[in-house]
């Protein structure tokens, strides 16, 4: 199932157009990089692809059909700051279940420890918390993952462990990944191709 963005245009309110006429496609299993200077609208485009925001022009389709408005979203996004992406009052076990039934093999590969499931977000480090956000985004219904600076704030070892787990699963499930990063080395290592906004 191919993900297509056709002729996408977006602006916030009455501010100038951030972008117009964006066209690109991603195949299942493909790892694509998205780069561009700060403020060009990478995160905004990601939010449109993941269905958080509607484009003002053009459309996003998955397998030729419009993205679903209800139910589990097949395009999932992980943000740079995990603390903004979780409910501070929910134990991690509950947060994890938002993505569907967690895959034990994935949790192990991400280095998530069983006892962390009983903790609240503020009882985990940033890196530990981000592992949960990644696991939650990789529910069984995910066809494409959008990683927006997903490992930017993590140390090299944690970064490598998370990417290793994600790429393993992507290959197994033929899931596509869009990687947004300012780290050119990381992009070259991970991506089949890189597009610039
Ligand atoms: N909700 C919003 N309302 C108004 N303007 C916004 C909103 N969100 C983002 N912007 C503006 O839109 C522009 C693009 O922001 P966006 O976060 O998409 O860029 P980016 O390319 O991802 O940047 P960075 O590389 O710094 O993360 C910025 O100028 C930002 O201030």
TrEMBL record:
GO terms of molecular function: ATP binding; ATP hydrolysis activity
Entry's family note: Belongs to the ABC transporter superfamily.
InterPro entries: AAA+_ATPase, ABC_transp_ATP-bind, ABC_transporter-like_ATP-bd, ABC_transporter-like_CS, P-loop_NTPase
Organism: Mesobacillus campisalis
Xref: Pfam families: ABC_tran
Assigned keywords, A-Z: ATP-binding, Nucleotide-binding, Transport
Lineage: Bacteria, Bacillati, Bacillota, Bacilli, Bacillales
Protein name: Peptide ABC transporter
Gene3D superfamilies: P-loop containing nucleotide triphosphate hydrolases
Record GO biological process: transmembrane transport
Domain spans labelled ABC transporter: 3-197
